[in-house]
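Researcher: Quick test of sequence recovery. Tokens follow.
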């Protein structure tokens, strides 16, 4: 993912708010000062061309831009003090709240905790693809602490299926989340190992994780049959180009703030 400075091309939009300019240039101390002196600018929406993958436009508040910029904790504290309601505001393209974007762009654990302290319901919000923030957290190889932070805010979120029938555990396994995270997800929702995506794919859980889970006494008598089905599912999934790309993270040549 590229920095905001390298994404900018040309001059700022006419009448662009100073707060937005400071975020785009990653002038974090100025962002905090501007929030204090002109808090209403934290309420100002702006259209961002190419925000997603360099060619998909959306309208955002400064807090959404700060999430994409991976701003430090102090910036989020200032933005939320200036406009607390922004925590539940959705960008216009996919209907994502700040917590979605924080997970997409790899925010720190402290930032995740802060966002959830303002609205734990953010962990339950689904975007237009049916995905809660947990789905996107799984694309970032999260720490166990980050996973538990979102899980505690929305335990039933492990059962949420997106428009393609994926569960968060499908994403975690598909994109290589740590064994500790996958094991914790399996312990919290054992039935997830038997659930297929709309394309017929089971979660690609490592044998070592399943063995560890078995030692915890959570296994069942259908292991042999499921192992055969799981291996066939993994083989079939190798040819499923459509499912293999739906959780791509922003590419290095994305222009998020053109």
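Model:
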């Amino acid at each position: 993912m590229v920095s905001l400075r390298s994404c900018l091309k040309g001059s700022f939009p006419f009448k662009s708010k100073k707060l937005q300019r400071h975020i785009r240039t990653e002038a974090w101390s100025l962002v905090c000062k501007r929030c204090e002196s002109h808090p209403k600018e934290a309420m100002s929406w702006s259209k961002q061309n190419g925000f997603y993958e360099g060619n998909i436009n959306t309208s955002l508040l400064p807090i959404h831009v700060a999430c994409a910029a991976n701003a430090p904790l102090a910036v989020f504290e200032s933005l939320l003090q200036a406009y607390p309601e922004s925590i539940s505001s959705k960008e216009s393209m996919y209907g994502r709240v700040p917590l979605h974007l924080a997970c997409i762009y790899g925010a720190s654990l402290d930032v995740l905790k802060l966002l959830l302290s303002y609205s734990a319901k953010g962990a339950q919000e689904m975007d237009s693809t049916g995905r809660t923030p947990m789905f996107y957290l799984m694309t970032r190889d999260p720490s166990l602490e980050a996973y538990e932070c979102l899980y505690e805010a929305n335990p039933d979120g492990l059962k949420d299926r997106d428009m393609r029938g994926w569960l968060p555990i499908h994403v975690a396994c598909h994109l290589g989340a740590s064994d500790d995270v996958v094991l914790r997800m399996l312990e919290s929702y054992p039935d997830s190992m038997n659930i297929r995506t709309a394309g017929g794919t089971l979660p690609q859980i490592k044998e070592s994780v399943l063995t560890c889970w078995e030692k915890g006494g959570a296994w069942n008598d259908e292991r042999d049959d499921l192992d055969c089905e799981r291996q066939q599912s993994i083989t079939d999934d190798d040819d499923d180009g459509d499912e293999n790309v739906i959780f791509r993270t922003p590419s290095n040549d994305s222009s998020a703030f053109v």
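The CA atoms of residues 40 and 82 lie 7 Å apart.
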